[in-house]
Design a protein that fits this description.
alpha+beta; Immunoglobulin-like; 2 helices; single chain; 10 strands; elongated; binds copper (II) ion
């Protein structure tokens, strides 16, 4: 490497972090300052609690993590995909397995810095039995106990139809 190139490289190495820092200060405001969007959150009422009970804390013997995954978004593209489908997100995993009457902690990680998600379990008619708000850049944990074996569908009501999944409730031992 010749001397002028070496000097230019050294100057660039010194200036780059400064430039990056200036850029990071221009990034959007923190998630906490944003107004929540989407439907209001609610826990199961007495009728819905016959299907699933949901509590903020309490003992559980199983622990699952569900993350929110950005599949195609306006910031990263592919822009053709966003133009055709709109922004697409997914729950990962989108299929979970639990035991009937076994309290199971589910922790939701919203990985997006600027997207509100929610987690709603719906009945056969598509009506939400409960709905949790999952704010941007947050971890939200609740204990779920499913009381009826079978397949139950869940959705992020903000991002339909793609952001959906299923809970398979296995019969108790
Ligand atoms: Cu969503």
């Amino acid at each position: 490497m010749t001397k002028p190139i070496l000097i230019a490289t050294l100057i660039a190495l010194v200036l780059l972090p400064i430039a990056n820092d200036g850029w990071s200060q221009q990034t959007p405001s923190p998630a906490a300052t944003r107004a929540p969007i989407g439907p209001p959150a609610f826990l199961p009422d007495a009728a819905a609690a016959r299907v699933v009970s949901v509590t903020k804390g309490g003992a559980s013997s199983e622990h699952l993590v569900i993350i929110t995954e950005a599949i195609a978004i306006k910031e990263n593209g592919p822009k053709e995909t966003v133009a055709r489908f709109g922004e697409v997100y997914a729950f990962s995993p989108a299929t979970i397995f639990v035991r009937e009457n076994q309290p199971t902690t589910i922790s939701f990680w919203n990985l997006q810095p600027d997207d509100q998600h929610d987690f709603a379990i719906v009945n056969a008619a598509g009506k939400p039995l409960m709905d949790l708000a999952l704010p941007p850049l947050s971890q939200t944990s609740y204990v779920f106990t499913f009381h009826r074996p079978g397949i139950w569908h869940f959705k992020c009501l903000v991002h339909q139809p793609a952001m959906s999944g299923q809970v398979l409730v296995l019969p108790a031992h």
